Amino acid sequence: MTDRRMLVFNVLRGAAAIFLALTVGFIFIILSSDEPLTALRYLLIGPIFSIRNGILSFNTISFYTILAAMIPTIFTGLAVCVMFSANQFNLAGEGLVMLGGFIGALCAIYLKMAAGLHPVVCVVIAAIACGLVMLIPALLKVKLGASEMVTSLMLNYIIMFIVLHFLNYNFADRSKGATQTFPFEATAQIPALVPGSSKLSWGFIIALIFVVIVALFMYRTKWGYAIRMIGINQPFSKYSGMKVGATIVLSQIIGGVLSGMGGSIEVLGRYNTYLWRELPGYGWTGITIAILAKNNPIFVPFAAFFIAYLDKGCQLMSTYSDVPSEMIDIIQAAIFLFFAAEQFLAKYRQKVVVKNTRLEMAKAETRAVSTERRNA
Amino acid sequence: MFDQFLSTILKADFLFSIIRITAPILFAALGAVVAEKAGVVNIGLEGIMSISALFGVLFSYWTQSWLVGVLGALVIGVILGLLMGFFALKLKTDIILAGIAINMIGGGGTIFLLYMFTGMRGNTGALVSQNILIPTVNIPLIKSIPILGEVLSGHSVLTYVAFILVFVMAALLYKTSLGLNIRAVGENEHAAESVGISVLRIKYIAIAISGAMAGLGGAFMSMYYSQGWNSGMIAGRGFIALAAQAMGRGEPVGTMLSSLLFGFAQALRTKVSGLQGVSSYLVSLIPYVFTIVGLVIYAISTTKKVRRYRETQVKAAE
Predict the structure, then answer these.
(1) Element housing B159 (H / E)
(2) What's the pTM?
(3) What ipTM was estimated for this complex?
(4) Residues B108, A343: C-beta atoms closer than 8 Å
């Protein structure tokens, strides 16, 4: 009973945070746009409904596009969930998505293999490589106490420039106008889940499977327990005999593996050549998603859907009205600040707690009274 | 190629460019120093620099005065610092997440803000004219000294301000009661509170000063270094500043020295990328690799020190 009331409170609190963040967004839209109503319409209902002659109809292709956009961010969201659960503010997911995509692409171009096996091998190689790269911030943290936050931020830039170097000097297809690699082998591409131009590949299903795997790992294995415990109370975990250092390293390796998978699956499912020339931004989105999901893997797909929906809305808004699509960053920042605010609506939380306690006490009293009567 | 390399870096203009490149990192690094002293991790420096860089240009364009622009950037920095403080200290958002949120606004959000205020997209090219940029100064006596004059004279006003602020910051932290309070709060909040220091107030002040520093760094970038604002112009300088603070052991003068090291790495990058047959991408790595190596060296030296300290403690006990 009490748990349910707390849950209801938490859900309402989250909704209030999102509502406030959207309100901040609306205020900015109204301030900057000459046609705020059109802008808002595209932002809010544009992503899945199309409006023709005043009739609202469900837009299936657009819906699939949103699902497709969730593929990389589910992976980065999961990666951040695992790392932040252990209180490791490792921000290298951003760079590792790019590295994973690049390595996956190289395997897709230069390895020759059967159709079913090829993409699996590409993704596995990319994931392992990214997991190994995560050893740098993880070991520096555990062995030397260097801040994983600073090293991982630097690592993002290092990865970007290394990828760009190899892309430009070693693997570029010079017959194309833009800088890109040679096309992938047809066997390496991750097949589409639905026909059409939505780019929704089987990667989406794989992402959902990994949501379940990561959730089971975090809540049903001793390693997952150790990761969460260390996040809650590191000294306690240490004194109770957990291998704190190894667990911290493990959490970041998992983060790297998931980020690398996200990058390679995205590249192999969406394109037929590698063409990212800057950091794709999925790592940062992953952080927003992990915050929205409260570090719980099960909520990651919902959070990813919400962000993908908003992102699509912002793109439509910038296409059909005069508001730039970068609006999404303002809304995301606002969501971030309110959602992660522990004391947001704390007074009401206090009220819920007080009410619960009163009810419990009243119940205990009636119980005591009834047992007294029975005894009498 | 090595001769060519040596002859490029041993010139006065190279030393001049080190100082020029160091200044914005130094501003932000001083912001990191004061925040860290009060026990606050300000990862939002990057975003604050970007946002105040934008507003520096806007304010100076609106008033056609560079001074108003710089002060405006400083005020915006303070406001953003306080905003971070409000969420982190009052609403208990994790300070790192609050910083990331500020960085998001600094990333795409600034493009939106620029559009909202001017209708322009991406950069402020059309707004900038020579009279709204920060002027350079020739120092009378030093100017005429042969090589030293070329290196030290002719920088922008803010460049000198950055290096003067190092000593101001040191004085603030070690010679004033505010500084004592800041250090006390950073060292041990509960102890500070028990002697009647308002921890919250001190943290707000520290993060506001931190924001002001980043604001000046932003103004330097848009109103002198790049002569205009564009998205992505900060390019990780706020993050490098965090590393400079860590490498400088959190002390103003040490942080200045490590900032100069990063300045050297950046200047080297610019010089080397002009040479033939060198990958510009690999050269771009230099400052970032430098940062990690610097952090490692710093971390090794501290862990050694701790070990030595423990050993002497053990010996003393015996």
Answers:
(1) helix B157-175
(2) 0.86
(3) 0.81
(4) no
